[in-house]
Backbone:
């Protein structure tokens, strides 16, 4: 196994940055073929970084998550060797014949509250309208609340158990997006990109659902990697907030399921993984657990 680690502050665009870090990684092992890669990025343009990387590495699986801080106030950063990166992306590209299992989970279930994104701002993250109604008003209706209850970062906390799901064209797994900030003009900001005319659905979960998801996700890894050498467990920081004072139960689950195999848990703002029929995705309020073979 060989691993190429590269990273960069944001260049002209996030896509261009992704292209450059991927090219640098391939230059380190020019005669080897990449198998999968780890990615960590600052929040806001994760999909663009990923697309730039994939344009060079090809459609190989990704796992990883976004840099986080204590108060969602932008004080996050990345580090690579001695470099500190305030805005940008870092990757570790694996060149190996040894397989890895990347398992994505969320624990949320569909409700009957559905609609179409009928208007979105150019940042691809601020939803203006759902079904031609102000998006925040629509979400407040779904939650049985007033718009005023969801302004600012109140929306983030109010949607920990009721996030937005993006329906797949395949009818398969729903991609979870976390509504983050509600605005006076009736728009709201998401933690990930969404396209105009996307089909969206309110999801819901209990604390027990989220803990069961942790158990199910690590079990899925173990089914496919019976003799793992290490685990990297990406756990959404928001999901950790939702679990609250029962977060120790996550640690107990991982201790039991990982046994004597070393593992690392990182709490992130945004999760990256690979899902059957969907390919590489960026999502929120999710888990991406990866098992690496020896």
Residues:
């Amino acid at each position: 196994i060989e691993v190429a680690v590269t990273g960069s502050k944001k260049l002209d665009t996030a896509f261009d940055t992704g292209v450059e870090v991927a090219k640098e990684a391939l230059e380190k092992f020019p005669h080897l073929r990449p198998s999968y890669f780890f990615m960590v990025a600052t929040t806001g343009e994760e999909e663009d970084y990923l697309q730039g990387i994939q344009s060079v590495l090809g459609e190989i699986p990704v796992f990883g998550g976004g840099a986080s801080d204590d108060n969602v106030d932008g004080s996050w950063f990345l580090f690579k060797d001695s470099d500190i990166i305030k805005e940008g992306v870092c990757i570790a590209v694996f060149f190996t014949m040894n397989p890895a299992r990347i398992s994505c989970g969320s624990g949320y279930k569909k409700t009957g509250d559905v609609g179409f994104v009928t208007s979105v701002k150019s940042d691809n993250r601020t939803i203006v309208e759902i079904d031609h109604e102000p998006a925040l008003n629509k979400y407040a209706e779904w939650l049985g609340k007033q718009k005023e209850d969801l302004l600012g970062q109140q929306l983030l906390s109010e949607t920990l158990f009721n996030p937005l799901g993006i329906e797949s064209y395949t009818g398969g797994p729903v991609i979870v997006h976390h509504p983050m900030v509600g605005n006076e003009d009736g728009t709201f900001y998401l933690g990930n990109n969404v396209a105009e005319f996307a089909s969206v659905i309110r999801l819901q979960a209990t604390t027990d659902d989220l803990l069961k998801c942790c158990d199910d996700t690590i079990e899925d890894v173990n089914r496919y990697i019976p003799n793992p050498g290490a685990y990297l467990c990406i756990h959404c920081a928001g999901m950790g907030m939702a679990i609250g004072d029962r977060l120790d139960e996550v640690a107990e689950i991982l201790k039991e399921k990982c046994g004597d195999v070393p593992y690392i848990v990182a709490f992130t703002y945004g999760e990256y993984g690979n899902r059957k029929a969907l390919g590489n995705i960026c999502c929120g309020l999710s888990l991406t657990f990866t098992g690496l073979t020896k």
Observations:
- Helices lie at 14-28, 46-57, 135-143, 154-158, 207-224, 237-243, 248-258.
- The first helix runs from residue 14 to 28.
